[in-house]
User: What shape does this take?
Amino acid sequence: MKNYDVVIVGACTAGTYFAHLLAKEGLKVLVIDKDSEQNLCKRLDIFHFTRDSYDQFDIPVSGDGDAEWVHDFDLCLSKSALDNHPKKSHTKVAVMHLPLFIKRLRERAISAGVEFHFEESFVDVVYNDQKQVCGITTTKGYYDARLVVDASGIPSVVRRKIEDDYIESFEITPRDKFYVLLKYVQLNNPDDKVELSTSWPYYKGWIAPQHNKSGAIIGVGANISYDYAYKCMDKFEKAIKLPEYTLQYEEKGCTPYCRPPLSFVTDGFMVIGDAACLTKPWNGEGIPSAWVQCTPAAKVVAKALSDGKIATKEDLWDINVLYQRGEGAEYAGTRAMLIGAVNMSAKDNDYLFANDIVFCDDDKGPNPNVVGTLLKGVFSGKFSLGGLISLMSASNKGEKLKKHYQKYPESPAGYHKWAKTALKLWKKVGTMADTVKDA
Ligand SMILES: Cc1cc2nc3c(=O)[nH]c(=O)nc-3n(C[C@H](O)[C@H](O)[C@H](O)COP(=O)(O)OP(=O)(O)OC[C@H]3O[C@@H](n4cnc5c(N)ncnc54)[C@H](O)[C@@H]3O)c2cc1C
Assistant: This one.
């Protein structure tokens, strides 16, 4: 048995980043992972990382000469279901190799004092007499900890074993995740170059740069199964004219696509990253969006552990408040809105793009007269009544959810009442999987 301030299960983007922050606060941190060091995070090769995130999260900047860095692009487009009305987002994005990026973050964490154990799996949670989490057992032994952190990704191995009123132990089922297919392709025509990322939200499909400049990545994400994702890829490629290509290889992976747990903490425990479903509702990306929770959380944890005792939910509660009232509220509202915005015909989706409703240039902003423009569309036959009802209803539900999250309770005492209303609101919103009709 060994004593640590914090034991983290999972050594990929969430666990490694959080471990470094905690070590900088002077805490003794152990990270365990079931995979070998060589295989860590290999489930994904190329990923996109917004340049702003380096500064925001104090990450060493990657560029020329760094093994993980491939290149940058600085414009993202999104287009309608009928391939019209491109909307610009002026975001500088780095294209990088994930396993090499995480290696760099791990080396930094080790220099700050973090201990890593590989090829060691979590087995069970250990509780003390007061029913507080006080450690874990693994395939190699037992660790005493004043805080156990679940960063195990979609399997959520620790969260799912917690028996407590403040932690939801739900499984991230096939309906609650996106099956992502990535085709790495070589472009047949030398004049075709993919130098920026273009997405078609209606098909949840996109084309983006990869490590080879004469190539591209074509992707789709879909709930339910890989079989259904292949079907969506087919539909996407039939509807949208992409450059001609030769397939090099395919990559597959899953990302959570569901609401996060309503509380991330309880006595001696917290959950982060994919295990907490902290992905962006509009594209499923989860690296910087999860770190938004980790950055203030490290300060809260350091303070909570300063008295030498187990971190209680009262000590950790600010982690919930800070996240749920901020990014949590924004994403809850956006998720509800998107469910309504994709649940309509291709023609309706084109009308939204044409009129800057939901989808707009980031430097121009949204249409100031949404209701008037939609009504005009209905009366002129350019937008369906069903589309109008779906969108207005989604917008209304999204606003209600956002406001409810902004009123996240100050302390655990108000949690159960708040959670009851939140669950009712989410039930009305439904999930993206509810919009799937042809799986
Ligand atoms: C195809 C695809 C493309 C993506 N592209 C992007 C992108 O461009 N940008 C972006 O921001 N996000 C992207 N994402 C999302 C992003 O990859 C995830 O949100 C993020 O990596 C989640 O990190 P995590 O550390 O929470 O979980 P994971 O990366 O899943 O790591 C969990 C770790 O826990 C370990 N573990 C699991 N069970 C146990 C156990 N029992 N015992 C011990 N260890 C265990 C695993 O081995 C693993 O190393 C993409 C996802 C997919 C599927």
